[in-house]
Design brief:
Elements: E1 2-8, E2 11-16, H1 19-28, H2 39-54, H3 60-72, H4 76-83, E3 87-88, E4 91-92, H5 125-152, H6 160-183
Antiparallel strand pairs: 1-2, 3-4
């Protein structure tokens, strides 16, 4: 009779054991539904209960009561009891221990894939945000200047250049400095 020792990525590790060994191990090992639930598991159940409330599968009182029970639940059995009567698109949601957790023996972890280096932006995000803010402020000032000029019917002094000019020059200097530092060859 095969005895399951651990599960990892659709792969089941089994060994042959006698009936007596299996019965003894069953008494010693906790059933996965009796494992203690984590805060993330409780949050997952609370999120599903919120979806059920939005779908009108639960009343507000039922939702409130179940969420209280979910956050005080200690095992997977306690959490699954809250979801048994709430269907999903693929059936009923059941919370289980992560596949990486095995009751006794586990397979070695799979090697991690090397991460691709992050793409570097031509202009740093902070500088892009500052340019966007500057453009918005200058556009508002030019719009006010144009509205005043059109409504008075007179050609008035182009005062928005005093908003755009000095701040734009300072921002341009900062951008050039940052780009020079970023493009400097590393020693």
């Amino acid at each position: 009779m095969p005895l399951t020792l651990g599960v990892r990525d659709r792969e089941m590790v089994t060994t042959m054991a006698t009936e007596g060994d299996a019965a003894e191990q069953a008494r010693q090992e906790p059933v996965p539904s009796q494992f203690r639930a984590s805060h993330g598991d409780r949050q997952l159940v609370a999120d599903r209960l919120r979806e059920a409330l939005d779908e009108r599968r639960l009343t507000l009182d039922e939702y409130d009561e179940r969420v209280k029970v979910a956050y005080s639940a200690s095992t997977y059995d306690d959490l699954n009891a809250l979801l048994r009567d709430i269907p999903t698109q693929s059936g009923v949601l059941e919370i289980r221990p992560h596949a990486g957790r095995a009751t006794q023996a586990s397979t070695p972890p799979a090697p991690e894939r090397p991460r691709k280096p992050a793409k570097t932006r031509r202009v740093p995000l902070a500088i892009s945000i500052l340019w966007t803010i500057w453009t918005g402020i200058v556009a508002i000032n030019v719009a006010v200047w144009l509205i005043v000029m059109v409504t008075t019917g007179n050609l008035i002094y182009p005062w928005p250049i005093w908003v755009a000019g000095p701040t734009g020059a300072a921002l341009l200097a900062v951008t050039i400095g940052v780009q020079a530092i970023r493009n400097r060859p590393e020693d």
